[in-house]
Design a protein that fits this description.
A hairpin with a 7-residue loop joins strand 40 and strand 41. It is globular, with a radius of gyration of 27 Å. Helix content is about 5%, strand content about 40%. It has 3 domains: about 5-155 and about 210-315, Distorted Sandwich (Beta-galactosidase, Chain A, domain 5); about 330-435, Carboxypeptidase-like, regulatory domain (Immunoglobulin-like); about 440-630, Sandwich (Jelly Rolls), CATH 2.60.120. The chain is mostly beta strands. InterPro entries: Carb-bd-like_fold, Gal_mutarotase_sf_dom, Galactose-bd-like_sf, GH-type_carb-bd, Polysacch_Lyase_4, RG-lyase_II, RG-lyase_III, Rhamnogal_lyase. Keywords: Lyase, Secreted, Signal. One of its GO terms (molecular function) is rhamnogalacturonan endolyase activity.
């Protein structure tokens, strides 16, 4: 069958792009997508909403120290960048002039691009953000691409094989049909349009995904049966690295492509630009994939097909059809390879291959700071069973080589920065990560994977269930689990006994306040009991690997709760809001509490962990892993090898 001819029309205030499969209608010069015609449906978008509220880019920003400002990103000039038999690309650009700008103007030049290609069932979107010289200082908090679909057609959402369901209607979130709970985004459906959803809780954060696990999400509509999918073929342009959590879809029906944001990590994620600082970054392209079927019984096949399309898009990244010279083509990129090993003499006398480790390039220059990096690109892969890695298609530049290894605490950072050159492979050979360790392990709680997933996650209160997460690997996404701590421990706090207790049943996943009389929330103290056959003279180390913290005051005492036995205190710990956003991890950090052996006794001992800030149901600490190390002695194992680096 012959390919249909590409068509472009620019009449009045609208531009239409038509490849015979998909037809886009865009407002010029602003660049809002107001219409997507496909598969017999004249418009997949919500035509009843304003033209600027259907398919659009937006941004949250502020002047230093100022209030948050929200802007729809609009073009000021429309142009055709490329048009041939295979591809059509258009631009909607707004150029920032620092010499004539007002104080209310966003200090960015933004170029929004859309691409349709012959024979391709969908379209591509990307944006070029640039700060020319002379710009004032400003902070960039969030930017994204949003599509609001027809609520009369799109009711079924899909994010993973397990996370799929019929969603509420937007009216269900309003008073009368929905009841807002403690968390503003959480709504109890008391009288939903679909009675099958009555009694459930809906919250957009329940559908969040880690960057490393995301890349495809969308909706399936009916009458006709059409799939609308957002595919991110690369994560390189998103901030926060592989463990950054982002929103995907939510009741609307809304489909998002989140590029930059602070969710689950806090305001330290905000990209802060100094006066005169220049910057340029390409966000995307992302692919909006559309598919359909005439057979109702095969509607789910649209999800299966979308997964195959995602894999295809990943294999052809970076794309060879993008016109902007700011988008770096494959031939102009480089790569880096090597092998990561772990040296822990208390586990093995040999170097340990860093199996399934995450290793990546980021412009961040200190260990672990890639989590908060928001200006540059990041390139991450997982090692194989022998610790080998090969990071391909890297934009040339100077990077820090970062990593973390499941089973070991802390963050790896290569001692030298890595220069990636155009068209060249950089080979690093063997690298060695030496995780934090001073002495032998006396006991440990959990498994160091930067999450609290291995701890006890309670069943949801039946009043606040979301059926999607019953018997789900993401059980922790249910609403109100923080209050289940009070239900389980109404009077006395959690006590964990080493050698007897099990984290999966006896270690609550979040160290939160207890709900007391009058619904007042009070601090809590968890006790770890352990027995020592002997006490070694010297310094003991308590390692606290933190998966998340929100507005907490964390204190550690040894054996007695007085100032003389206080060995660690960290105030105002964390701002990642993971507890209220139904997550299992946020900003990862590692602390060590050193204390002298004189605080311990032969026989029974206790360590007290206190979340000392009260008055807030949503503050708390999620522990990844806790380990007590004895002092190193002359009998402690010595390294049998020098570090390879």
């Amino acid at each position: 069958m012959a390919k249909k001819k590409m068509k472009l029309s620019s009449q009045g205030p609208y531009v239409t792009m038509d490849n015979g499969l998909v037809k886009l209608t865009i407002v010029k010069p602003q660049g809002y997508i107001i219409g997507i015609a496909y598969g017999g449906m004249d418009n997949l978008l919500d035509a009843k909403s304003n033209e600027s509220s259907r398919g659009y880019w937006d941004i949250n920003w502020n002047l230093p120290g100022g209030q948050d400002r929200y802007h729809l990103l609009e073009g000021g000039e429309y142009s055709v960048v490329q048009m041939n038999k295979e591809s059509l690309e258009v631009s909607f650009k707004n150029t920032y002039d620092p010499w004539s700008a007002r104080s209310t103007d966003l200090p960015l030049t933004v170029d929004i691009r859309y691409i349709v290609r012959t024979g391709v069932s969908g379209f591509y979107c990307y944006g070029i953000y640039e700060r020319p010289s002379g710009c004032p200082a400003f902070d960039l908090a969030q930017t994204r691409l949003v599509f609001k679909l027809r609520k009369d057609k799109f009711h079924y959402m899909a994010i993973t094989d397990e996370k799929q369901r019929v969603m509420p209607m937007p009216e269900d979130l309003l008073p009368g049909r929905g009841q807002q709970l403690i968390v503003p985004e959480s709504v109890l459906l008391v009288n939903p349009i679909n009675p099958d959803l009555k009694g459930e809780v809906d919250d957009k954060y329940m559908y969040s995904m880690d960057n490393k696990d995301s890349g495809l999400h969308g909706w399936i509509g009916s009458g006709p049966i059409i799939g609308f999918w957002t595919i991110l073929p690369s994560q390189e342009f998103r901030n926060g690295g592989p463990t950054k959590q982002n929103l995907t879809v939510h009741t609307g029906p809304t489909c998002l492509a989140m590029f930059q944001g602070t969710h689950y990590l806090g305001l330290d994620m905000v990209a802060q630009f100094e006066e005169g600082e220049t910057w340029k970054k390409v966000f995307g392209p992302v692919f909006i994939y559309l598919n359909s079927t005439p057979d109702t019984s095969k509607a789910h096949n649209l999800w299966t097909d979308a997964k195959k399309q995602r894999l295809f898009e990943e294999t052809v990244w970076p794309y060879d059809f993008v016109s902007s010279p700011n988008y770096v083509a494959a031939k102009d990129r480089g790569s880096v390879s090597g092998r990561l090993l772990v040296q822990d003499r208390y586990i093995s006398g040999s170097l340990i291959p860093a199996k399934n480790a995450y290793i990546g390039l980021s412009v961040a220059t200190t260990a672990g700071s890639w989590q908060l990096e928001s200006k540059g690109y990041q390139f991450w892969v997982q090692t194989d069973s022998n610790g080998n890695f090969n990071i391909k298609n890297v934009i040339p530049g100077v990077y820090g080589l970062h990593g973390w290894v499941p089973g070991f605490m802390g963050d790896y950072l290569h001692k030298e920065q890595i220069t990636i050159s155009e068209g060249k492979q950089t080979e690093l050979q063997n690298l060695t990560y030496v995780p934090p360790r001073d002495g032998p392990t006396l006991w440990e709680i959990g498994f160091p994977d930067r999450t609290a997933i291995g701890d006890f996650v309670p069943d949801v209160n039946p009043m606040y269930v979301n059926k999607l997460f019953i018997n789900s690997p993401e059980k922790y996404r249910q609403y109100g689990l923080w209050d289940r701590y009070t239900d389980i421990h109404p009077q006395l706090d959690q006590i964990y006994t080493i050698g007897i207790s099990n984290p999966k049943t006896d270690w609550f996943f979040a160290h939160v306040d207890r709900r007391g009389p009058g619904n007042k929330y009070v601090p809590t103290t968890w006790t770890i009991k352990f027995n020592l056959n002997s006490v070694t003279t010297g310094t003991y180390q308590l390692r606290l690997s933190i998966a998340s913290a929100t507005r907490s005051d964390l204190e550690v005492h040894v054996n007695y709760m007085d100032s003389g036995h206080l060995v660690f205190q960290e105030l105002n710990l964390g701002t990642d809001n993971t507890v209220c956003r139904h997550g299992i991890h946020g900003f990862y950090c590692l602390f060590s509490a050193n204390f002298p052996s004189t605080l311990l006794v032969k026989g029974d001992n206790s360590i007290f962990l206190t979340q000392a800030r009260g008055g807030n149901s949503l503050c708390g600490v999620l522990y990844d892993y806790i380990r007590l190390e004895a002092p190193a002695t002359s009998e402690s194992p010595k390294s049998l090898y020098p570090p390879i680096e």
